[in-house]
Each structure stands twice: as structure tokens, then as C-alpha cells.
């Protein structure tokens, strides 16, 4: 199968390219390298060093017996994107080319506006390009469980059915996003669903939980990034980096917030299953992609225990919550579709965390030199903020 990955240089994209190539797929991809720019803007780096793109592509060719056909473009460049899809002619398009940070979108007007335009307009650009250049291809669009919020009822996979006046209706589950980033993803989901209805495209919207884990290789050119700054580092990845540099683990607020989590390797397995099992033409389907539901306090305890087994002595120190979110809430999402396709979780979370800490320890000094970027500074309820600078893009 020919798979085109938009956002191939990112945390998920670079791992996915290798995962799919090992399974015999032909890989193409596009990236504008903005994730590198955004993290630099936050004053941080990837905890695990990553090499320049040309070195990555060379390593890919050496290890996977194929060249990754790379297109240096931003999905907002509609003409360039159309040309790339026409040349590559994918069977599947995986859309990972969005800004994935809630805190980044909450910095100020300029960042909120950038994230909305980048994500919403970028998705529209991709949908129209697929309609015109590869209308039979399957779109796998990365959504987020954060679109749903934390409603006081169980969360189905995208839709629920109601009966009214003798008719059963299939309605989108209500969205209660908690950041400008998450609202951009809500709009994306509606755009993709409408494109399937309008043009007969086929799409899988993957509502992914929080991903954690490293992707390290004997050839370090194949390593994927792992961010730990307040904007682009996910909670568990940040906790592991804090443990490695003897900085207290920092759950926000009471730490009772619950979310769905899965490892990076399990994310790759799930995305591979979605790619291998496309929907029918005109079908828009939703997969909730997670392994388990845990509280932030449970994450911190897991990291502390793993750190102690690695000779570290992490402590837990709660921080005032900078976000606008319920800290005590019901959270029970359904995630049966991927399991029905064959998803089988791999290593337990405590083993993954121990492996992560082992991968991160050689870079302790590197992480420590940027340790000040771990603490939260972006406040959801901040008083009036004056900012005259746009995001660095």
C-alpha cells in the first residue's frame, strides 16, 4: 500500500513511517519542519536528539530498502500539496500535520489565531486536494479525545443513537473542548465528516488519547523526538524527564483529572490497523484510540516507582492548575472498534516507563539545561495579556 504521511517529521509521523515501512508499505510524506520551530520558540529542545531531515531520510533508505519520497511543503500551500498527491498517488493519507498543543494555543491571540488557521485551513486544503487528486484514497485524520471534554456520561466512539418520533437518529456526540487547539480539532472533525458526505471520501477520525514513550534505535538517526517543555511535552513524557533530572514531578491541581493513555508503540499498532482496514466510500468513522484510563496522580506514582527502580528518587509536588478543567469528573470512553480489528496492547505502562527512563538517562545533562521549561507559565484564565509578536513560523 502507498501511504502518504502529512507531518512525517514529527513525534508520531517519523515513528509511523518506520512502522509501516517494516510492514512492507511504500512511504511518502510531507513536512514544513514546524514542530522543530515551535519547540525552539518555547526555548526548548527534544530530550532525545534528532538529526537534520536529510540525515533521517538517508538512514531510512539504508534500513528499509526504499526511499521515503519526501515533499518539503506546508499543507496550507494548496498548490504544492495537490502536486505532491498527484505525483505520489497514495492509497492512504495520514494527516498528522497540525499544531498539537493546547498550551501553545492559549498563549495569546496570535498563537490562538495561528493554531486555528494552521489546523482548520490545513485540513480543508488536504480535503480539497484529496478530492481532486486521489478521491479513492482513505484519509486517516488524527483527532484527540480532548474534543469530547469530560462530560458526565460515557463517551461513545464519535456518535450516539437516539429515538425520536419513532425514528432512530445517529448524532455526533457533543464536543466540550477545553482549549483553542481542541476547538480547532472539533472543527476538523466536522469538516472531514462533511467531505465524506459531500464528495464520497472515506475517512477514519482517530480520537487519540495521550501518547507517551520513546522510539530509539541502534542507528540514532532513526530516533524520534521526545518533547518535555510545557507546550509540547505530554504529561507522562514530562514526568519522566523531571525524574531523570531530579526535578519534582508536577501534577496540576489535585491531580485527579482522568484521561485515556497509550504508548507510542501501541499508537503505531492502532494507526496501522486503521490503515489496513479502510472504510467504504462515503463513510466517516470514529475510533477512540486509547489503552487505559488513568488519573494524573496515578501517572506520577507510576513514574516515581519506575524512577526508584532505576536508582532515582523522584518526589511529587503539586502545582496550581494553569488550565480551565474539571479536576473531579466522570470519564468512561468506549474504545471497542480498534480492539475488534485486532488491537492488543503491548507492554504494561510501568514497563514502558522504565524503558523510557533508561532511554532518557544518557541525555540527563541535555534535559537539565532546559529544565526551566518544564514548569507551567501559560495560564488559561490569565488577566489581560499584551503581546505584539506572532508565532515564529
Automatic annotation (TrEMBL):
Gene3D superfamilies, per database record: NAD(P)-binding Rossmann-like Domain, UDP-galactose 4-epimerase, domain 1
Domain of life: Bacteria
Domain NAD-dependent epimerase/dehydratase, chain residue ranges per copy: 3-288
Family classification: Belongs to the NAD(P)-dependent epimerase/dehydratase family.
Cited PANTHER family: DTDP-D-GLUCOSE 4,6-DEHYDRATASE-RELATED (PTHR43000)
Protein name: NAD-dependent dehydratase
Originating species: Streptomyces glebosus
Amino acid at each position: 500500500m502507498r501511504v502518504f504521511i502529512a507531518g512525517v517529521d514529527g513525534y508520531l509521523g517519523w515513528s509511523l513511517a518506520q512502522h509501516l515501512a517494516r510492514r512492507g508499505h511504500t512511504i511518502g510524506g510531507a513536512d514544513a519542519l514546524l514542530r522543530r520551530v515551535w519547540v525552539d520558540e518555547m526555548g526548548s529542545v527534544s530530550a532525545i536528539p534528532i538529526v537534520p531531515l536529510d540525515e533521517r531520510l538517508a538512514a531510512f533508505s539504508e534500513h528499509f530498502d526504499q526511499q521515503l519520497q519526501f515533499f518539503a511543503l506546508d499543507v496550507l500551500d494548496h498548490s504544492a500539496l495537490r502536486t505532491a498527491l498527484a505525483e505520489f498517488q497514495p492509497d492512504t493519507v495520514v494527516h498528522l500535520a497540525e499544531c498539537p498543543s493546547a498550551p501553545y494555543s492559549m498563549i495569546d491571540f496570535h498563537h490562538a489565531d495561528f493554531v486555528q488557521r494552521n489546523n482548520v485551513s490545513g485540513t480543508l486544503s488536504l480535503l480539497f486536494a484529496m478530492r481532486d487528486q486521489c478521491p479513492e484514497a482513505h484519509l486517516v485524520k488524527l483527532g484527540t479525545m480532548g474534543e469530547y471534554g469530560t462530560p458526565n456520561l460515557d463517551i461513545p466512539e464519535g456518535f450516539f443513537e437516539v429515538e425520536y418520533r419513532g425514528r432512530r437518529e445517529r448524532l455526533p456526540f457533543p464536543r466540550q473542548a477545553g482549549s483553542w487547539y481542541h476547538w480547532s480539532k472539533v472543527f476538523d472533525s466536522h469538516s472531514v465528516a462533511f467531505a465524506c458526505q459531500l464528495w464520497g471520501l472515506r475517512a477514519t477520525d482517530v480520537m487519540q488519547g495521550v501518547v507517551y514513550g520513546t522510539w530509539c534505535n541502534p542507528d540514532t538517526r532513526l530516533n524520534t523526538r521526545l518533547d518535555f517543555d510545557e507546550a509540547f511535552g505530554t504529561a507522562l513524557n514530562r514526568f519522566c524527564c523531571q525524574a531523570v533530572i531530579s526535578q519534582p514531578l508536577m501534577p496540576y491541581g489535585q491531580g485527579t483529572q482522568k484521561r485515556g493513555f497509550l504508548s507510542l508503540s501501541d499508537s503505531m499498532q492502532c494507526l496501522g490497523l486503521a490503515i489496513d482496514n479502510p472504510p467504504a466510500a462515503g463513510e466517516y468513522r470514529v475510533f477512540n484510540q486509547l489503552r487505559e484510563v488513568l488519573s494524573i496522580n496515578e501517572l506520577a506514582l507510576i513514574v516515581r516507582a519506575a524512577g526508584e527502580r532505576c536508582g532515582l528518587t523522584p518526589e511529587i509536588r503539586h502545582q496550581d492548575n494553569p488550565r480551565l478543567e474539571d479536576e473531579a469528573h466522570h470519564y468512561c470512553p468506549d474504545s471497542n472498534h480498534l480492539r475488534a480489528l485486532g488491537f492488543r496492547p503491548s507492554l504494561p505502562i510501568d514497563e514502558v516507563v522504565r524503558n523510557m527512563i533508561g532511554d532518557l538517562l544518557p541525555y540527563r545533562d541535555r534535559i537539565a539545561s532546559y529544565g526551566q521549561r518544564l514548569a507551567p507559565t501559560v495560564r488559561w484564565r490569565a488577566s489581560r495579556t499584551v503581546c505584539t509578536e506572532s508565532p515564529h513560523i
